[in-house]
Amino acid sequence: MFTGIVAEKGKVLEAGAETLVIESWLALEGAAVGDSIAVNGACLTITTMAEGRFAVDVTPETLRRTNLGDLREGSAVNLEPSLAYGGKVGGHLVQGHVDAVGVVAGVTPEGNSRLITFDAPREIMRYVVEKGFVAVDGISLTVAGLSDAHFTVAVIPYTDEHTTLGERGPGDRVNLEADILAKYTERLLTEGETQAAAG
Q: Residue 56: how many CB atoms within 10 A of its CB?
């Protein structure tokens, strides 16, 4: 489990077909081989570690469902270590299970922030509500506006500087994870309606 608060912007040192080696200093503090770590919002397992770097295995399933296959040597990635029980939840509860890949549709400066609009598939948009949460490349963000096919977030300079959002532009692919509470709520309501109809 994660919170969508990026600990560090890491750098890909090696991008193999099944393995990523990533430079990291802050996100590895207190970590051990076998621990979970979110890379652009995808929960992966640390398989090896050395000073200032770690490796993770990436399965074909993960590559199909995320933007991790787009990574190359030198690519920046958002890193977050897993949440310890009793730890501070600064964003929202994020599982690290990417639901779909979206695309940056537009970027508009607004005062001290930037409005970024993402095209997103229907399976994500059904869970997105204004002022609700969504994870974009593992970053917990608040929805500022939405339509049937896209949503918009306001990004402050700190987030631009300390995450990969500052490097994103139109056409870039991003990992999306809907709020787990919305998914559970839908499931409970659907079950309730099914039972009521059967009763």
A: 21
| Distance separating alpha carbons of residues 181 and 178, to the nearest angstrom | 9
List, for residues 69-105, the tens digit of each pLDDT value.
999 999 999 999 998 777 777 788 899 999 999 999 9
pTM score, whole prediction: 0.90
Tokens of 166: 């500052």
Backbone angles phi, psi at 54, to 5 degrees: -150, 165
- Identify whether the C-beta of residue 138 lies closer than 8 Å to the C-beta of residue 6: yes
Instruction: Tell me which residue of 121, 105, 111, 97 sits closest to 179, measured CA to CA.
Output: 97
Q: Which residue has the tokens 């009521």?
A: 196
51-65 pLDDT, tens per residue? 999 999 999 999 999
Report in angstroms the alpha-carbon separations of 29 from 44, 53, 97: 16, 11, 23
DSSP, res 73: T
What DSSP string runs through 1-46?
Answer: -B-S---EEEEEEEE-SSEEEEE-SSTTTT--TT-EEEETTEEEEE
54 near 13, Cβ under 8 Å?
no
